[in-house]
TrEMBL record:
Classification via InterPro entries: MPAB/Lcp_cat_dom (IPR018713)
Domain ER-bound oxygenase mpaB/mpaB'/Rubber oxygenase catalytic: 18-259
Name this polypeptide is given: DUF2236 domain-containing protein
Organism name: Streptomyces caniferus
High-level lineage: Bacteria, Bacillati, Actinomycetota, Actinomycetes, Kitasatosporales
Amino acid sequence: MNTVKNDPRPPPVGGVLWSMAGDIRMLLTLPAALTMQVAHPAVGAGVDDHSVFRTDPWGRGERSLTSLQLWVYGGKDAAEEGRRLRQLHKSISGTDAHGRRYHALTPEYYAWVHATGYPVFRYAQHYLGRPFTEAQERQLYAEWLQVGRVLGIHDRDMPQTVEEFWPYYQKVLDNDLEATLVVRELVATNPALPAPDRGLRWLRLLLRLSWPWLCPRFARIRRFLTIGLMPPDARQAIGLEWTDAQERRLRRFGRVVRAVVPVLPERLRFMPIARRARRAARA
C-alpha cells in the first residue's frame, strides 16, 4: 500500500454512504447508474472499445463492486484504489461514434461517470428504502464529493453544492446523452451474455446448464430495474420507455424489498467489505 500524507479520506463512519453503499440493495441501483454513464457518447465509446463487459461481464462486475466498496469502506486503502483507477484509465482513448476524440480522464467525462451515482441513489431510495430528508440529500452529496476526491476528481470539475448540481446535470441530459450502442446492449432482452463463472463448482455447472432458460429472464429483470430505478428525466433524455404498468410493478417490488432487507441479519444484508469495516468500526 502506497499511502501519501495528504491522501483524501473516504466518507465518514456512520454517514449516509456508510449505511447504504454496502447494503445489498445497492446492487439493484448500479445498472441504472452504469447505463447513464455510457449514455454519454465519450464514455460509451470508451467502454465499447476497451472494456471486457462483453467477454467477462461477471468478473468486471465483481471488480467494479469491490472498487466501489473500497471508496467508502477502504480506510487508508481508498486513496490507493483511486490512484489505481486513474492509472488504469490513462491508456483509454479513441474516437466516439460521432468522430470526436475522447480520453477517459478528460475531466468532463470522468466527472460525469462519478456524478451519476448521486441522482440514481437519491431516486432509487424512494423505492428501496425511506426517501431521504433534505438534510440527508445534502449530506449524501457532500459525501459523494468526498468519494470524488478519493478518485482524483478536482473540486473545480464537480458542482460543489446540490443547488449547483442540478443545472449541471440537466445540461448534460439536454446536450450529451443518447442511446449509445452500449446502452442498447445493457437494456437488451436477448443479450449474448455468458453464464456466470463465479461461485462453487456445482453452482457454476448448474448455471451453465440452465443458462439458455435463465438468461432471457435475467435480461428482462435487468432491463426492468435499469430503466425503473433511473431518474425519469435521464430515462427520457436517453429515450427509454417506461409505462404506468411497469411503474406499478416497481412500486410493488419496492414494498417487498423495504419489508425484507432491513430485517435480514448483517451477514446477509451487507456485502463482505462493508461487513468487515462495520465490525472494525464497532470494535
